[in-house]
Specification:
- The protein is an alpha+beta fold.
- The chain has helices spanning 8-15, 25-46, 68-83, 222-232, 248-258, 277-290, 321-332, and strands spanning 55-59, 65-67, 87-92, 99-100, 112-120, 131-139, 160-168, 172-177, 182-188, 193-198, 209-211, 241-242, 261-264, 294-296, 316-319.
- Helix 1 runs antiparallel to helix 2, helix 2 runs antiparallel to helix 3 (68-83) and helix 4 (222-232) packs across helix 7 (321-332).
- A hairpin with a 4-residue loop joins strand 9 and strand 10.
- The strands form three sheets. It has an eight-stranded mixed β-sheet with strand order 4-3-5-6-7-8-9-10, sandwiched between helices.
- 28% of the residues lie in helices and 23% in strands.
- It has two domains: 8-198, 2-Layer Sandwich (Fructose-1,6-Bisphosphatase, Chain A, domain 1); 209-332, D-Maltodextrin-Binding Protein, domain 2, CATH 3.40.190.
- It binds 6-O-phosphono-alpha-D-fructofuranose.
- 6-O-phosphono-alpha-D-fructofuranose is lined by residues 120-121, 123, 213, 246-248, 251, 274-275.
Length: 335
């Protein structure tokens, strides 16, 4: 059947009935993210032209130099969500603590929380490599009408009601799921409209691309070292191709279209891994599983992990099901 050239706005309205518990608030969250993505996209595309490139001189909670575009993107997404009065709390990679949001009437009646990495891969901005925004949405677990608490954010990934990313690349795309498959929308910058360009995205079960920072090889667990050697062996459809952009959203997006696996393991330099569970791994895992892919920490499903800290890090193995499972086989040998 010819896919009608839906705009994101039309798509959200059409799918509204799928949000059986939502009175339209979840749709309004996606719409808020749609607007913020356009605003950030405009600045990202101008980054080389105006003085917002380069470190802001401050450091974020991760101790990483905060690029001005990081700060800008964080403020745009936070403000857009606050203005729409649809969430009761926001957690961001750029903020030490979560942000409690009270309605204009000072109420706490909104029932969703949003967690995000407003500009992942921002160290690539100065070298003109694509970057992305990652977001994750939960229903709050504490009583509506009471102030949001840390408990509302420390939920396992299986409780997500929506997750997605924006990739600011050769074209700007918004890819998201609400638990009913994964759909990708491409921005037409001339008119500022997202069009459904990638309906029902599926992770190929197999692939020939592995994405890992092999510069850390000597620091990797033996199971990861063995898997990398497996990928490099001359046998069957191997050796695979190594592709690592250094931007999770970009590597993930390419692997979802072409087939592949992304691995950020523990290492002696990153004993718990580098990626954050709440606003990088869980949302990408939700998308991966909804597209028929897989996401684990090398041993268990990412979305089963019960979070204990807002910015906790986990090892991340994500992508084509058969490739993740092969990597897990090597990891299991040394458990
Ligand atoms: P490394 C970007 O900082 C990021 O969080 C991911 O987007 C990316 O895949 C990874 O870290 C790159 O980390 O240590 O390989 O430079």
């Amino acid at each position: 059947m010819k896919q009608r050239n839906n705009t994101l706005g039309e798509f959200i309205i059409e799918k509204q009935e799928e949000f059986k518990y939502s009175s339209g608030e979840l749709s309004r969250i996606i719409n808020a993210i749609r607007l913020a993505a356009k605003v950030v996209n405009y600045k990202v595309n101008k980054a080389g032209l105006v003085d917002i490139v380069g470190a802001a001189g401050e450091q974020n909670v991760q101790g990483e130099d905060q690029q001005k575009l990081d700060v800008y993107a964080n403020e745009v997404f936070i403000q857009t969500l606050i203005n729409r009065e649809i969430v009761c709390g926001i957690a961001s990679e750029e903020n030490d603590d979560f942000i409690a949001i009270h309605g204009k009437a000072g109420d706490d009646n909104n029932k969703y929380v949003v967690l995000m990495d407003p500009l992942d891969g921002s160290s690539n901005i100065d070298v003109n490599v694509s970057v992305g925004t990652i977001f994750s949405v939960y229903r709050r677990v504490t009583p509506i009408g009471t102030p949001v608490t840390l408990e509302d954010f420390l939920q396992p990934g299986d409780h997500q009601v929506a997750a997605g990313y924006v990739i600011y690349g050769t074209s700007t795309m918004l890819v998201y799921t609400t638990g009913h498959g994964v759909n990708g929308f491409t921005l037409n910058p001339a008119i500022g409209t997202f069009y459904l360009s990638h309906p029902n995205m599926q992770y190929p079960k197999d692939g020939k691309i592995y994405s890992v920072n092999e510069g850390n090889y000597i620091h990797f667990p033996q199971g990861v070292k063995d898997y990398i050697k497996y990928c490099q062996m001359e046998e069957g459809d191997r050796p695979y191709t190594s592709r690592y952009i250094g931007s999770l959203v970009s590597d993930f997006h390419r692997n979802m279209i072409k087939g592949g696996v992304y691995i950020y393991p523990t290492s002696s330099k990153a004993p718990k891994g580098k990626l954050r569970l709440l606003y990088e791994c869980n949302p990408m895992a939700f998308i991966a599983e909804q597209a028929g892919g897989k996401a684990s920490d090398g041993y268990q499903r990412i979305m089963e992990i019960k979070p204990t800290e807002l910015h906790q890090r986990v090892p991340f193995f994500c992508g084509s099901q058969n490739m993740v499972e092969k990597a897990e086989e090597f990891m299991a040998k040394y458990k």
